[in-house]
Specification:
single chain, 398 residues, alpha/beta, Rossmann fold, 2 domains, 7-stranded parallel β-sheet, 6-stranded parallel β-sheet, 13 strands, globular
Length: 398
């Protein structure tokens, strides 16, 4: 099959969740199909990254979106019903290049990741196409609204309503729809959402393996540190949880590791000598190996937290929220620990830091759970069945 894949970012290097999902699924689909990759990019692309992707894709084309073009386009968002998430990525010059690529390649199927890319092909009724929603963006925006400043709430509420409408509309305009978790599927408002295929992420167990290294930090948080749910989570950890922990364990240290830390995240290390903010690291496994516990008190956001899967694969005991674990599905108290209030998170952290045997039990069970339930090869096979028409999603049919 000639498969054309349309992404809102170049899926390498793997420092963000959408890139990780796209990379692992596409690289496996390329073993069975002729994959042609079209990527939008709002920043310069390293030719080495494109060359790496070309090692398994039949063709790859990167369409640059200039920042000035994006800013001009966003002004028009006031006069449209499209979500800002869509307006940001949709441009006439990119449309022309994508249309030309479709005419040249003549794909048997088109796979779009995120509703950010769907405007380019939604009216191509001659194409067989699948939408990977990945996350429910409308629900994530709704949760951000609840914790945002008062002056942002009206804007975010408007974006939430637009996303709900657009997600429902795209459901009817694509042949197949898939999403990362059952929790996210249930956040879609469409009456036929049960027809969506749930295709979870995996974790590379050969890459994320336990390391024989003495931890230098007590706690760890990783992720894209310019992403609002991650910023919110780490601020919650530092401002509300860590002070309680330090009443019992005054020297508790924290490593915050991940690409593009915001000013508010960088400031945490400037104010506290026991907090380290690394920014982007070449090998995130070194960060996992450097800490005793992984703590992710996610309060907002949607989707599947890859950081949890990776930490568990590396045999690190994890503490998180019910919100984050609902997508993972790990048995609470056995393979993962769940907190709700700051006092509960603090109690769990203190318990694990003071009890090596309990740390080992949770870490071992978490590692076994991830190995049994999250596999990229299995997820790619599920996706292959969807795009090949073997999974009867047919969201547009009554």
């Amino acid at each position: 099959m000639k498969l054309l894949v349309l992404l809102s970012r170049v899926p390498f290097p793997l420092e963000k969740g959408d890139k990780l999902r796209a990379y692992h699924l596409i690289s496996r689909l390329a073993r069975r199909h002729e994959v042609h990759l079209l990527c939008l990019s709002d920043a310069p692309t390293d030719p080495a990254h494109v060359q790496h992707l070309a090692s398994f894709c039949s063709s790859i084309e990167v369409i640059r979106l200039r920042r000035w073009q994006i800013m001009l386009k966003l002004i028009t968002a006031v006069f449209t019903r499209l979500p800002v998430q869509v307006v940001y990525f949709h441009h006439r010059h990119a449309q022309r290049r994508i249309d030309a690529a479709i005419d040249r390649i003549k794909p048997d199927h088109v796979l779009c990741q995120l509703v950010r890319t769907t405007e380019y092909v939604r009216r191509r009724y001659d194409l067989s196409k699948t939408l990977d929603y990945m996350d429910t963006l409308s629900k994530g925006m709704e949760r951000r609204t609840e914790t945002s400043h008062f002056y942002l709430k009206p804007i975010l509420r408007l974006e939430t309503r637009r996303l709900i409408r657009y997600e429902n509309l795209m459901f009817d305009q694509f042949d197949h729809a898939l999403i990362i978790s059952a929790q996210d599927r249930d956040f879609i408002y469409h009456p036929w959402r049960d027809r969506m295929s749930v295709v979870p992420n995996g974790v590379d167990m050969d890459h994320f393996t336990p390391q024989d290294e003495e931890p230098r930090y007590d706690l760890l948080f990783t992720g894209n540190m310019n992403y609002p749910p991650n910023i919110d989570s780490v601020l919650y950890l530092v401002q509300k949880v860590l002070p309680i922990v330090r009443r019992a364990l005054p020297n508790t240290s924290l490593l915050i590791s991940g690409v593009d830390p915001s000013a508010s995240v960088r400031a945490l290390a400037e104010r506290d000598p026991l907090i380290t903010v690394t920014g982007w690291v070449k090998d995130i496994r070194k960060s996992y190996a450097a800490a005793r516990l992984f703590v992710a008190p996610m309060q907002i956001g949607t989707g599947l937290q890859n950081k949890l899967l990776e930490a568990m694969a590396m045999r690190k005991p994890c503490i998180t929220s019910a919100l984050a674990n609902n997508a993972v599905g790990a048995p609470p108290g056995e393979a993962i620990l769940i907190g709700e209030k700051p006092e509960e998170y603090a109690t769990l952290i203190i318990r694990l830091l003071q009890n090596p045997d309990e740390r080992e039990r949770i870490a071992r069970n978490g590692h076994d759970f991830v190995r049994a339930h999250f596999d990229w090869d299995r997820s790619a096979m599920d996706l292959d069945r969807v795009i090949s028409g073997q999974t009867p999603t047919a969201p547009g049919l009554p």
